[in-house]
Amino acid sequence: MAALRWDGKLFVLDQRLLPWEERWVEVSSAEQAVELIRGLAVRGAPVIGLVAAYALALEAHKNPDLSYLEAQGQALAQARPTAVNLPHAVSLLLQVARETPEPERAKALAAAAEALHRADAEACLRMAQLGAAFLSGPSLSVLTHCNAGALATGGVGTALGVVRALHASGRLHRLYACEARPVLQGARLTAWEAVQDGLPVTLLADGAAGSLLASGAVHAVVVGADRIAADGSVANKVGTYPLAVLAQRHRVPFLVVAPTTTFDLACPSGAAIPIESRPAAEVRECAGRAVTAEGVGVFNPAFDVTPPELVTAIVCERGVIAPVTGENLQRVLA
Ligand SMILES: CSC[C@H]1O[C@H](OP(=O)(O)O)[C@H](O)[C@@H]1O
């Protein structure tokens, strides 16, 4: 299962059509990649960085001129504001472009994008093992939110990578997936990944998470991230922050799983993380049909911020950060 394919040509699985249809779309330009990222055809912090990197490699094949590539890179970096993986990937590729003579630029950018992809896949495997080892117990029920799986990364997933590792070692009792209104990444994507892999999965409305946690049925909450600030604040899909409050209330570990490409040490705190505001239609409509009256205002932030004191641990490929403090972040990331 993968969100993208690269063989010198770039293809992405159009996630807007899942779980109803698996349709692969060829990406042939940075402009098209921006549209696909902005429209959530491809989504998830790590994978949008990878798509941007491959799109730049494709552009370099067409026109290796540095100022042209800089302009394409800026457009890609601005496709969505919250996931720092996106500008991280673009700036790395543009650095390679600046350091490479024009005739070799296309090949160098393709190699750099492929290296980023391999690194993300390896990080997912490492985090899966670290996260599964951090959680104690022989048979665990894990609650997750949105989709932090293979569809969001270049590998097995971040949060879902931990769930897959638990399953592989016989320690997963059940995966509880919050639907993740309004775009339903949990209902449409996480549940689909779980069924594809034979994971025992139960879908719930976001509003049901409180009573599920109160019932004692959940042993851990495990989520991904889109940006982690220097103080350990975590931006993730809207609805994550209330889950962290509920997890603390019910004394359930709250684990954030994210590769180092999701950390932004230049961002001092959660208040400085740019939160994407998405179209009102995502809330006003369901399956293309209005679910509210005309004239109703909409508040539709794509993400929220969880303060570090509500996070039990952050798992990255370099290790486990716990307790979550700025000092511990620096120590693990150094
Ligand atoms: C591997 S973490 C992916 C992260 O991205 C999701 O947001 P979106 O679907 O809007 O790209 C969500 O926040 C996930 O946790």
From TrEMBL:
Catalytic activities: 5-(methylsulfanyl)-alpha-D-ribose 1-phosphate = 5-(methylsulfanyl)-D-ribulose 1-phosphate
Keyword Amino-acid biosynthesis: yes
Entry annotation: catalytic residues: D226
Site feature: Transition state stabilizer: C146
Leading EC class: isomerase
InterPro entries: IF-2B-related (IPR000649), IF-M1Pi (IPR005251), IF_2B-like_C (IPR042529), Initiation_fac_2B_a/b/d (IPR011559), M1Pi_N (IPR027363), NagB/RpiA_transferase-like (IPR037171)
Keyword Isomerase carried by entry: yes
GO MF terms held by the record: S-methyl-5-thioribose-1-phosphate isomerase activity
Pathway: Amino-acid biosynthesis; L-methionine biosynthesis via salvage pathway; L-methionine from S-methyl-5-thio-alpha-D-ribose 1-phosphate: step 1/6
Record key words, sorted: Amino-acid biosynthesis, Isomerase, Methionine biosynthesis
Entry EC number(s): 5.3.1.23
Pfam family, one: IF-2B
GO terms of biological process kind: L-methionine salvage from methylthioadenosine
Annotated substrate binding sites: R43, G44, A45, R80, Q185, N236, K237
Family note: Belongs to the EIF-2B alpha/beta/delta subunits family. MtnA subfamily.
Cited function: Catalyzes the interconversion of methylthioribose-1-phosphate (MTR-1-P) into methylthioribulose-1-phosphate (MTRu-1-P).
Descriptive protein name: Methylthioribose-1-phosphate isomerase
